[in-house]
Amino acid sequence: MSKNIVAFSNVLVFLFSTSYATPGIGTFYTTYTPSACYGGKQEGVFIAAASNQLWDNGRVCGKMFRVKCTGARNAVPHPCTGKSVTVRIVDHCPNGCASTIDLSREAFAQIANPVTGIINIDYTP
Fold first, then answer.
1. Most buried residue, 9, 32, 76, 105, by most Cβ within 10 Å?
2. Which residue positions does the secretion signal occupy (predicted)?
3. CA torsion 60→104→24→52, rounded to 10°?
4. pLDDT tens readout for residues 57-99
């Protein structure tokens, strides 16, 4: 009986986590300070900048997002690693930013080949 409950719980967690993922576009950047949220304070390397779509006048600063590559946006074949990464929003991606979430290079490399430069993603807060 307890194995059935654990299996059912795992199914619910899977359905819950995938049903609320939002599609977007991911890119990466390499200069992490100064940032719009924390100025000159270094906040590690698993960080990201939020586009205007997510920025909400800076209310997104410090929030964590789980990001997963879902496919290519250019001619680079099979860019995704199959992994996901959790990042903290520390910056604002400037107007004209090509992505929804601009990941640090280290975070991008966890989920996709950096040669790709731009990918389709799913993200969850």
1. 32
2. 1-21
3. 40
4. 999 999 999 999 999 999 999 999 999 999 999 999 987 788 9
First-to-last C-alpha distance (Å) of the chain: 33
* Token pair 């009986």 in the structure block, residue: 1
* CA 49 and chain centroid, separation: 9
State the Cα–Cα distance between residues 82 and 77, nearest whole angstrom. Answer: 14
Helix, strand or coil for residue 19?
A: helix
Beta strand 47-50 with 101-104 is antiparallel
CA dist 1 to 5, 6, 11, 15, 104, Å? 6, 9, 16, 21, 45
